[in-house]
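Kindly review these tokens for lecture notes.

. . .
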Amino acid sequence: MLTAMPGLRPVTLFEEMQRRHPDVSDGVRRTLERRVRHWQAQHGPERDVIFRQDHPPGLQGLSDFTDTSGLGVHIAGQPLDHRLYHFRLAFSGWSHAEVVLGGESFTALASGLQNALWGLGGAPAEHRSDSLSAAFHNAAEDSAADLTTRYAALCAHYGMQPTRNNRGVAHENGSIEGPHAHLKAALAQALLLRGSAGFDDLDAYRRFVDDVVGRQNAGRRRAVDLERAALRQLPAMRTADFEQALVTVTRSSAFVLRRVFYTVPSRLIGHRLRVRLHDDRLECFLGTSLVLTLPRGRISTARSARGQRGHMVDYRHIIHALRRKPQALLNLVYRDQLFPRPAYRHTWDRLLEAGPPRQACRAMVALLALAHERNCEATLAVELQAILDAGDLPDPAELERRFAPASSAMPAVTVTLPALDAYDRLYAA
């Protein structure tokens, strides 16, 4: 059976043996496994051989993405669904890693690769990836062809030869596959020393990753200095690391892009915007002027399959209109996404329970307007939660007085004009 079907596992053979001969006991399984292993060493098929490579300085850089869900990172109390883009030089081991919020994409690859090269100060002769999975991820045939062209142009811009390992043969990318585990282990240990995997904001976590990677690179300084001397010179400027789309702002003061609904300031209603899609943000241009930067939203595959949309809503974009029509809040399609913090959502629920919807809408809109106009969103959220915990309901008028700017009287200034002959005396002196 082993000769005819070399892929059979010893445990499969043992189970078949017990089926044919029920008197065979479980205690001889290890003996069978050992004998199969010896037989395969003498009579088995030839196996794949890994050829260790010598990497000259400046020859090869590698890119890949790695899943970091095991780190358990939280941002402002919410779990962060992310992965890391990882770049590494094969000779010196110099690395660059950065947080990627979406999946593997050409945008994430192009941005991460260019950040790595400019941080390094040069480019290797060859760039290797794992079968361009980042470029082809969930792409249609025509889109994949376009992304392949863009990837080739990206490498050509930096004078790098694009190469890739054979699909499914991870050890051909061993110069970065193995270091993935070392990087994640270093991050996990640093989080243990820090005492917490929670961060106040995404920028704080990105600085943490940069610090860990920077300490690893510092230990390779001599090899890195040797490799830098062999790197190619960088071009005069970066190339595009984003995708572009054209959108029209609707009467809802919003646009839909990639099945995600984004609100924008109402002054842009009716205008056509050119949007640059980065991994973590959208840059919106009116003509050649950058008019708005928005955090990028994404929708899960399951919700997209059900025909649902994601929502990226900023209450500050529409609060002026809500003040004129507060009752629109009651059945607003994206009402739940409108509240900037959990305390505001809890306040809305309590207001609905305590009184008629009309009154709840007026009070909630007044609170959102207060948060915007007094620039006190975080402080007001703390105050609202304290009021709710005490079993009371917030009074918008009282809170408006509490958060009103301190009044200050204008000082009385007396201006005494000098006599004109004083100028004559000054000139004579």
About this structure: The chain has four domains: 10-43, 60-228, 242-312, 315-403. The first strand starts at residue 60 and ends at 67. Residues 174-194 form the longest helix (21 residues).
